[in-house]
Design a protein that fits this description.
Structural class: alpha/beta
Radius of gyration: 21 Å
CATH class of the largest domain: Alpha Beta
Strand content: 15-25%
Distance between the termini: 41 Å
Number of domains: 2
Order of helices and strands: HEHHEHEHEEHEEHHEHHEHHEHEEEHE
Largest sheet: 12 strands, mixed
Helix content: 40-55%
Length: about 450
């Protein structure tokens, strides 16, 4: 039961603090759509996605109208496509991408994820074919997102896949030069990818999931910022407790929406992902939360410690509120999508090295970072390897979503539009990593992977 005070607080969080349900994501299994005939498989994929998700957008809009809770995005995630295409001709893979894109647009959703491969220990024929098709697939589709998992704590890091993904990112940027390499904004390279992530571009419906599920992602950086403004100057244990209590209230709202959507769509409820996912709107920034803790600007010394406290307190608050918290719950640090991060990067305070340090304690990794267009593929691969190593050793999810913007360099700014925001192009190290990346093979799993 909610008290009158709880109701008033929630209304205020929605009206003035940018609290929203960032996404209702329907996960759909495509295992029964596999077919040796690519065209037949694509028809099955489109038919199943439409049959399952045709009412998803309307349901989200109905819930928003009836409950007064903003539901920003409606999305679909599907089984990693490489798992159902083992008999496909390598030249046919883009057809699968188009089938996903067409089905998602027919349903009216914002994004669909799952053009993905899991290659942490090695690549099958279908895995490699899908990865090599990524640049063309991302260039010829509108709302389809892709991901590749190149490492895990249990398996180590597949450096052959890492090297290939460095080149794929470069090729994707080149093929989408007309939108400043924007195809790369729809591509994530993971270590320890989770199977129930509702957030794009890395969402997919894992092989351990049910036939279909409803996952909800909730976001509220503005709510946390407002709460911390009320405890200005207080010790860090007070700060942590304040964040935890705020996250509890936000998660409760997310679970309400998730269960309502589950009931109306006759689809099992999966998880609530409580992630502080920022936007470029002023007052909806993770960076400003960190600065409220006492930092003059995000990126200065103390930033990693502040982010560690925030991420942990958010998770604790979510776990208190629901037994179904999952996904990537915590704090995201996508540079182009956070007005505070944009400001700090433009001033040169937030650097690529500091961002990498922050990924040790945040929920994902190097996210939505614009780098010079002439950055070599091997340098991008080495960035992926560094992030994968952080994830592998620390048994956490890490990811890389960088955009080498064709024809632009340090000092330029790029605007990706909408939720993707804009970002200054930041420098990367110019010293070569080519010989390191060319070694190939596999970085072995750490000793603590042997726990059983």
């Amino acid at each position: 039961m909610l008290s009158h005070k709880d109701i008033v607080q929630t209304i205020d969080m929605i009206d003035s603090q940018h609290l929203d349900v960032r996404t209702i994501t329907m996960g759909i299994s495509l295992f029964d759509c596999a077919d040796s005939d690519t065209d037949a498989a694509c028809r099955k994929i489109q038919d199943k996605i439409y049959h399952c998700a045709k009412d998803l957008v309307r349901t989200g809009e109905d819930i928003q109208r009836e409950f007064g809770i903003p539901v920003v995005n409606k999305r679909i995630s599907v089984t990693p496509v490489a798992m159902i295409t083992s008999s496909a001709d390598p030249d046919d893979y883009v057809k699968y991408a188009l089938a996903l894109d067409n089905a998602a647009r027919a349903c009216g959703v914002d994004f669909i994820g799952g053009y993905s491969a899991l290659v942490q220990k090695g690549m099958t024929r279908s895995d490699e074919a899908l990865i090599r098709s990524l640049p063309e697939a991302l260039a010829c589709t509108q709302i389809m997102c892709a991901s590749v998992n190149v490492g895990s704590t249990k398996a180590g890091i597949n450096m052959d896949a890492v090297a290939l993904m460095g080149q794929v990112v470069k090729d994707t940027a080149a093929l989408t030069e007309a939108v400043d390499g924007g195809g790369c904004a729809k591509l994530v390279v993971f270590c320890n990818a989770v199977e129930d992530n509702p957030f794009m571009a890395g969402a997919f419906h894992g092989p351990g999931e049910a036939e279909k599920v409803i996952n909800v992602g909730v976001s509220g950086p503005g709510v946390v910022l407002t709460a911390l403004q009320e405890v200005k100057g207080q010790p860090f244990d007070v700060v942590a407790e304040t964040v935890k209590k705020t996250a509890f209230r936000v998660t409760r709202m997310g679970q309400l929406v998730a269960r309502e959507a589950s009931k109306r769509l006759d689809t099992p409820f999966g998880i609530v992902d409580l992630s502080l996912a920022p936007t470029s709107v002023v007052g909806d920034s993770v960076a400003r939360i960190l600065e409220e803790m006492g930092l003059e600007r995000v990126g200065t010394h103390g930033t990693t410690a502040a982010l560690a406290l925030l991420n942990d307190a958010v998770k604790k608050g979510g776990i208190m509120a629901s037994s179904s918290v999952g996904g990537l719950s915590g704090a995201f640090i996508p540079v182009s999508e956070d007005e505070g991060m944009i400001d700090a990067a433009a001033r040169g305070v937030l650097t690529i090295d500091k961002l990498e340090a922050m990924t040790c304690v945040c929920s994902v990794g190097l996210d939505m970072i614009a780098v010079p267009g002439d950055t070599p593929a091997e340098t991008i691969a080495a960035m992926i390897a560094d992030e994968a190593a952080i994830g592998m050793i620390n048994n956490k999810t890490t990811a890389v979503r960088v955009i080498p913007v064709p024809g632009k360099g340090v000092g330029d700014t790029v605007d990706f539009g909408g939720l993707l925001g804009s970002a200054p192009i930041i420098p990367v190290h110019r010293e070569s990593s080519a010989d390191f990346v060319k070694r190939g093979g596999r970085i072995p799993a750490p000793i603590h992977s042997l726990r059983n």
